[in-house]
Amino acid sequence: MSYVNKNINSNAFLLSLFECAIDEALPYGHIAKYLPDDKTGKAIVIGAGKAAASMAAELEAVWQGELQGVVVTRYGHTVAANNPHMASDLLKRTTTSSKIEVIEAAHPVPDAAGQAVGERILSLVSELCEDDVVICLLSGGGSALMSLSAEGLTLSDKQTINKALLKSGAAIDEMNCVRKHLSAIKGGRLAKAVHPAKLISLAISDVPGDDTSVIASGPTVADSTTRFDALAILERYDIEIPTAVFQWLNNPKSETIKPNDPCLANSEIHIVATPQSALEAAANKAIQQGIPAYILSDCIEGEARDVAKVHAAIAKQIAEKGQPFKAPCVLLSGGETTVTVKGTGRGGRNSEFLLSLYNELQGHPQIHALAGDTDGIDGVEDNAGACITPDSFARGQRLGLNPQHYLDNNDGYHFFLALESLVITGPTLTNVNDFRALLILPAKK
Predict the structure, then answer these.
(1) C-alpha dist (Å) from residue 194 to 118, 264, 403
(2) Contact at 8 Å (CB) between 70 and 120?
(3) Is the separation of the CB atoms in 139 and 375 below 8 Å?
(4) How many Å apart are CA 276 and CA 298, to the nearest integer?
(5) At CA 34, angle to CA 33 and CA 40, rounded to 5?
(6) What pTM did the predictor assign?
(7) In the predicted model, what is the mean pLDDT of residues 119-131?
(8) Tens of pLDDT along 150-206?
(9) In angstroms, what is the C-alpha Rg of the chain?
(10) How far is CA 351 from CA 9, 10, 304, 335, 436, in A?
(11) How far is CA 69 from the centre of its chain?
């Protein structure tokens, strides 16, 4: 592959890859093939996640029969933002539903709206018969958004645990193991409520490995984890356990639905979009622009700042030694990193990754990078992530910015705000988690 664009605008190039990945992760064109051949009947629709509104709109577009139901999404995620930073027609497409009600609730810490919609969903699917059809739309964020506390637990109990887990550095599968065992709807319990009706679950994966039992805490699939696993996770991260939570997890009734449970006999689940498919779309986009692309992995986990150090080392090896790839090239990766919060700053795992990368690269003249969350929200901020170029380091020094100070305070947001390097997309109405792209160019002669 020849290097056809010697005057490449690195930011525009990296943003085009990010946009392409997001477009591939949207549900448009990805749902119909997983539905029954006969789409003229009646179906009840339920669901939760950051992509709930766009998935509901696409389902309405391809289903010819009667639809009724309710889905829940994050506040502000009911319609696509008018995004000045990206030109994608898909991102600007209005996603409204006329038949399926779309409700908003809080994420990542659940609120009363999420509790209420959980009750509504359970009520909607109770007392169905074998001839009924239920379509469940799931995507990242669904665990917090469709939050119905288990017997004897309060919303406050769940909020306390959620907040502690989010700061602990626990991996997503660990967090969702705990959430499943504190829920009246997750860990297969929703499938049990739907039984004996036909249940078709459609999911956009936001988890490493595309494990359906982890996506939105697996409300419609079997769960192999146990209440003892949940207790061990809380102990591992030294999380204070409210008395009611401790008593519930020591009660056999807190156990989730296990494989081969009869209530799953008439249930199926399909993943309609994945982190890997998004990365492949971005890679193809890069190749079309004359830049070889290499996908490192779609399921990278670990502390964001440590993952950045590995990425920096690989990028520098390419730039300086031509190994394992030759410049120019772009490295792509996905997954879900974590941040152990010790400071009081603002920012999510992608700004933390990029701040650590900035610290490692020290303005390396050949390396450019972007890191962003495909849902458009890095943590709880208004940015998807940020980007850096070789001159970012010099600009940071002129501004008196100390990257280690900001890193110690978990304050990537304000660091990149000062550099005017935030990537702001608004809600994208999908979520396949982290997107990272490092562009390595040849040394200038």
Answers:
(1) 13, 9, 51
(2) yes
(3) no
(4) 5
(5) 80
(6) 0.91
(7) 95
(8) 999 999 999 999 999 988 989 889 999 999 999 999 999 999 999 999 999 999 999
(9) 22
(10) 21, 18, 9, 15, 11
(11) 24
Q: Which of 367, 368, 387 is nearest to 378 (CA)?
A: 387
Q: Which residues contact 424 (CB under 8 A, 6 or more apart)?
A: 85, 382, 383, 384
Could you tell me the CA-to-CA distances from 72 to 5, 49, 166, 313, 378 in Å, in that order? Answer: 44, 7, 21, 41, 20
Give the pLDDT confidence score for residue 5 in this predicted structure. Answer: 41
Give the pLDDT score at 394. 95
**What is the CA angle 323-353-368, rounded to 5?**
50
| Alpha carbon separation from 79 to 52, 64, 73, 134, 179 (Å, rounded) | 10, 23, 10, 24, 28
Q: Give the contacts of 397 (CB within 8 A, at least 6 positions apart).
A: none
Provide the strand spans (E) within 75-209.
100-105, 133-138, 198-204
How many CA atoms lie less than 13 Å away from 348 in the CB half-sphere?
25
> Rounded to 5 degrees, what are φ and ψ at 277?
-65, -35
How far is Cα 376 from Cα 424, in angstroms, rounded to an integer?
7
Q: What amino acid occupies position 392?
A: S
For residue 4, the tally of other CB atoms under 10 A from its CB is 10
Helix (H) or strand (E) holding 47: strand 42-48
Phi/psi for 424 (5° steps) reads: -115, 115
CA angle 203–161–413, rounded 5-degree value: 75
* Helix H or strand E encompassing 438: strand 434-440
Asked whether 201 and 220 are in contact (CB, 8 A), the reply is yes
According to DSSP, residue 97 is labeled -
Average pLDDT for 263-281:
97
Indicate the burial class of 433 (C-beta count within 10 angstroms; 0-12, 13-18, 19 or more): buried
